[in-house]
Amino acid sequence: MKPINTYELSGGRSALRWLYMLTLFLMTLTGFGQMPIFKRYYIADIPGMGWLGKFYVTHYIHYLGAIFLIGLIAYVIVDYVLSGRKEFRLTSSAYVRIALLGAIVITGIFRVLKNLPDVVFSPGFTLFIDISHLGFMMLYLLAALVFRIMKSGWVVRK
Ligand code: HEM
Question: Is this model's pTM higher than 0.85 or not?
Answer without folding.
Answer: yes
